[in-house]
Amino acid sequence: MLTDSFGRVVRDLRVSVTDRCNFRCSYCMPAEGMVWQDRAELLTFEEITRVVAVFSSRLGVEGVRITGGEPTVRAHLPVLVRQLASLPSRPDLAMTTNGASMRLMAEDLREAGLDRVNISCDSLRRERFAEITKRDALPAVLDGIAAAKAAGFDPVKLNCVLMRGVNDDEVLDFAEFGREQGLSIRFIEFMPLDAQDKWQAGAVVPSREVLDTIAGRFPIEPVAHGPEPASRFRYADGAGEVGVIASVTEPFCASCDRVRITADGQFRTCLFALDETDLRAIVRGGGSDDDLEAAIRGAVAGKWAGHQIGNVTFVRPPRSMSQIGG
Prior knowledge:
Order of helices and strands: EHEHEHEHHEHEHEEEEEEHHH
Helix content: 25-40%
Shape: globular
CATH topology: TIM Barrel
Number of strands: 12
CATH superfamily: Aldolase class I
Largest sheet: 12 strands, mixed
Number of helices: 10
Radius of gyration: 19 Å
Strand order of the largest sheet: 7-8-9-6-5-4-3-2-1-10-11-12
Structural class: alpha/beta
CATH class: Alpha Beta
Distance between the termini: 24 Å
């Protein structure tokens, strides 16, 4: 078991496989001027598998989520999924994707051993979607959602980052879409990791407001849940569920159970961490699994109490979301 000095148990590992994406959402990466990492700087599939094996077999991590950037732009991604699914200490395997390539990959990923998929979509209106992502790809994303369902992923979760004055008028549209399509919608508060560094508290749509809006149309009731960040609610009429992730207005740092590895092998104990531990250097420098375990335990032991968003002490991380991993 891997615990920090506050007694929080680490159960969930986010592994970024690339900093690249086929969309240009401003809260993830700048519209231009992005400096991509050289392929040689990224962990190989074998290196990722080795590190994940240490987390799952030695440290008790139960779930691994593949992220980016956009993970599906990494060539031969099903190969990595198959390697991870073949580990003796096999963790639950999930992936967060923008869904645009799921029609091409859903069956292969499912066959390789991927258990769950979250698809990010911040607007159901084609012109607005194109404005947010700088790509007219909403039809491809919607088709990707259908492909994920057809491949047997159940449930398919849909992540929506709400931003005041941008897409906050689509809460009920997403709720209705989720109910009709059998999707579990997750509304996520806008966090200060945007590539343009223009985040303001006024751009955050509080999760309580979202829930009140939904409840005004569709009665909902809370669902008991564990350490996962989403507060979940079921529709009273049985038409599925919806969730909110209130990372800004109602921080869940006290029960956080996740850590992250960037595409270039840097270990982060918090999404907003200012320090990183270089696991790539250990792997490529001939370090043993004992060395990896010691470095991970040392980093987690120093994990801070919380991210401090909204306080004068908050310092924005130097990396944007696409460089960290979702």
